[in-house]
# Entry
Amino acid sequence: MPQKRILYFDVLNILACICVIWLHCNSVLYSYDPGAGLWRLSLFVQVICHFAVPAFFMISGANLMNYREKYSTAEFIKRRFLRTLIPLLIWSGILLVKQCSQGLVELEDFQHVVFLFLTSSIETVYWFFFPLFAIYLCIPVLSLIARGGRKNDKYFLYMALMGIFFTSVFPFFADQIHLGYSDHIIFPMAMGFLPYALLGYYLANNQPSRPVCACIYAVGIACAFYMYRGTISMSAMKGGLDKDLIDYQSFASYGFAIAVFLFFRNRQFRLFDNARARKLLSVVSGASFGVYLIHMLTMELFGMVTGVETYSYGWQLFGEIPVYFIALAVVLLVKKIPYLGKILFP
# Structure
């Protein structure tokens, strides 16, 4: 029996994919110039799109934590391997060949190739896959907790909150007041990006009350505002771009991402309340992984063909639109090619 798709997962997946591309059209941010309106616009784009990467981790946690209800752990690992690692290796290889042919990279030996892959040096945006793989490796153990039913969901919330506090909240505010602390003050059960996956599963399976939702939305808005204003203030003191608040493991990132995920979870999306619209949505959502794999290549080729000025208001605001739809069209067309489509864009 085919798995029933969850509408808000598809909507959030598509929006997150577009926002990730928008972030990567946003290179002005790293040329620190606080007096320039274009730089402040770039920071604003960074903030409003910041939920996108966490959203992918949250959707993964929500989708995969109950895999034992559908198939074995061996099948889970096989599916993740075929759907993510193989395409990543293939596209890394394609991009590496391209870079070598352009004289951008000179390979020394096989160890050098492995180094380039493991450090995301072939394509920097592929860094995302390494924490994703780490989450995949945690899920077989965490799924045993999920198998215990709703009564065990509180353990996911506990682990997520402890992880956020000890890796984000406590270190940030301790640094602000110049309070020394040991690097060993951690919560090892929920480090890295795992709290996003835990929260995704928890929020997908538990409906907070309306007052709690309102509080979460308020905190999310406050976190987004602080991410923007705080980055400006802290960068001014530093004399360069301060990335503390726009780091994906900052407390501001967690607060904003949780609010956005919950907002989409609570929407009805009546616009897609028919079989044809849902089918279209599922097809577009299913292409997001492929779009992510090729969007930087698409952006590069689009710039070469059009000669578009990337340090401009137009590109900062609308550059993601042609890049997304071109990449989407390529993915959907290649998916129709027997065998090749399943290998390149499963």
Observations:
- The chain has a mean pLDDT of 95.
